[in-house]
Amino acid sequence: MSASEYFQQVIDSAVMSVDVIAAALEVAAASATQSLLGGGTLYCCAVGCDRSLAQFVADRLMYPVDVDRPALPALALTGVASVAPEDAPWRDARALARAGDTVLCIDSSPDGHVLQHGIAAMAGRDVQFLGLTHTGIKDVDSAGKYTIIAVPGDARSRLLGLQALTLNCLCHLIEQQLFGET
């Protein structure tokens, strides 16, 4: 497969994902915006290759890209080597997250174990919990208590690209809701 064919497949996947992602993305942006307006912080939690996406979101909100605006309180929690990888960000999130904060879990793993650990770790906390995973993960939120953005993807590499695009859109929507058209 040529580079242009692969790129076209990725773009096609993004286009096909719009209807699947849009509603949850809007809810997630509104939730995070309300948290930020209330003085909350956005904690972006991830392990493995998803750590770079968590850092991207935190940096995108802390350091404006397109418009001159104040920094927004966002922090990537990606854990340390001395803790089991799937538990690492949750230990930090439990220690730092306070009522009114938002915790974003980014999980591209095939089985959704990081998202499941995140939901368990933050259960009973008065925080907004947002999850970014893929459509292959079922029943992680059967009670409907959390906002889960499920990105369609058949290969993890393609899924990561779509998740990056989704997270960039999330940041844009947050900025738009806080500062107007950006």
Automatic annotation (TrEMBL):
GO terms of molecular function? carbohydrate derivative binding
- The domain of life is Bacteria
Q: Which Gene3D superfamilies match?
A: Glucose-6-phosphate isomerase like protein, domain 1 (3.40.50.10490)
| Example of a GO biological process term | carbohydrate derivative metabolic process
Q: SUPFAM superfamilies in the record, alphabetically? A: SIS domain
Q: InterPro entries attached here?
A: SIS_dom_sf
The molecule here is called DnaA-interacting protein DiaA
Q: Which organism is it from?
A: Chromatocurvus halotolerans
